[in-house]
Amino acid sequence: MEKKERESLESKSLLAAIYYLEQDELSFLEHESVKNQLLKTISRKNIILLDKDNERFNGDMPSIELIDSSFMARVRKERIAHFDTGDFFYNGRFYEDNQGDFVVVTRESKDDFNEQMHSLLQILVIVSLLGIISIFIVSQYLGTVAYEPIIRIIDEIKRKDTKNFNEPIVLKKSYDEINDLIKTYNHFVDRIAQIFNVQKNFIDYVSHELRTPITALLGTLEVTKNKQRSVEEYETVISQLKQYTADLQDTLENMTLLSGAKTSFEFGTLRVDEIIWSVIENAVLYHQARIEVEMEVEDNELLSFEGNVKLLELAIGNLVENALKYSNNDVVKVSIKESQGRLVVLLQDRGIGILEEDIYNIKQNFFRGQNARGYQGKGIGLSMANVIFQLHRIALEIKSDSSGTTIILTF
């Protein structure tokens, strides 16, 4: 608005200069035309012409005290200059004429300008208030639309209990971010449900495994106290109780290992081939197993290993028992090799194999393959072996198809 006022005053100053100083060079009609244009745009009371001595040369502006010498000097230097007061806008133009060099000063009252500014301020305030109200209303609506799926999710979660905890949340109408949230929540709940299922199976396993030795202990004690026994009979009973207690201790060791409660064991230097031969001898003795052994290790130092003999016998024994069981006691091949400076043990059977969709979950606690339902087992042998191999930093890899399974242990 100020720029517009100044541009208007510049035009009026030029028109005033032509009217007052070019009268001798214009025809009467031309001069009258300039006069009419000037009087339509500005009053003579708002015009003054000053000569080189800053004295009034023409114009009817009543007061020139505000037009100081510094402004006049700026006009003569810059050709055009502006300043304003509380009541007026002022414009100064330097004009060279055959009568001399003059400064033409025009002014314009700020009354209309201030009214326009006041009107603009009112419009801006009204528009701003209407805008804020509109934004508030629209944001409330959008907030309701955006928050509605979250409210429904909260209501769904509140309705969850022990019976329907693992049921997924399904919303028919939603948007991508909420859908991602629902998928994440459903995946999280599914994982928790799996953990709960594992815990339940673990408790069932604990109950089953502890019940047998405890029942044997209590039964033996009950029978023994019914009548007096000889020293030999007491020694036999004590031997039985000792065996039951050892079985119970082994079961507890296996359970603590399987649950992850026990992660530190006594490690010492051992021979891997001796452990494997010990496992094979037990398999032959108890299962009449047919096991072929292939030894291809040139560096005997690779056979020495830091570990726990009992745990490794348990883990490798579980692998051999699985190979025999799921191949119906067919020939099992054990290969002891070296690869890139590491000891590698392969167990190959000709059994039923592991389905492709099961092989990624086969190491989990209590998981059993779909094609293994006809064989006795609890689904803990391989998971326990995997825990033991992890403790010994032995990589366990499983490859399987319908022709059999290959276990690869990399030390």
List keywords for this structure.
411 residues; alpha+beta; Beta-Lactamase; Helix Hairpins; Heat Shock Protein 90; 3 domains; five-stranded antiparallel beta sheet; five-stranded mixed beta sheet; transmembrane helix; EC 2.7.13.3; transmembrane
Question: How is this structure best described in words?
Answer:
The protein is of the alpha+beta class and 411 residues long. The protein is 53% helix and 18% strand. The chain is built from nine helices and twelve strands. The strands form three sheets. Strands 2-1-5-4-3 form a five-stranded antiparallel sheet. The protein has a five-stranded mixed sheet with strand order 7-9-10-12-11. Helix 1 packs antiparallel against helix 2 and helix 5 (176-225) runs antiparallel to helix 6 (231-259). The chain starts with a helix and ends with a strand. The mean pLDDT is 86. One of its GO terms (cellular component) is plasma membrane. This is histidine kinase. Its EC number is 2.7.13.3. It catalyses: ATP + protein L-histidine = ADP + protein N-phospho-L-histidine.
Reported by name, the CATH topology of the largest domain is Heat Shock Protein 90
Query: What's the CATH class of the largest domain, please?
Result: Alpha Beta
Number of helices: 9
Q: Reading side by side through the largest sheet, how are the strands ordered?
A: 2-1-5-4-3
CATH superfamily assignment of the largest domain? Histidine kinase-like ATPase, C-terminal domain
Structural class: alpha+beta
What is the global morphology? rod-shaped
Task: Count up the domains.
Answer: 3
Mean pLDDT: 86
Q: Approximately what portion of the residues adopt beta-strand conformation?
A: 15-25%
Strand segment tally: 12
Which architecture of the largest domain per CATH? Answer: 2-Layer Sandwich
State the low-pLDDT regions, or none.
none
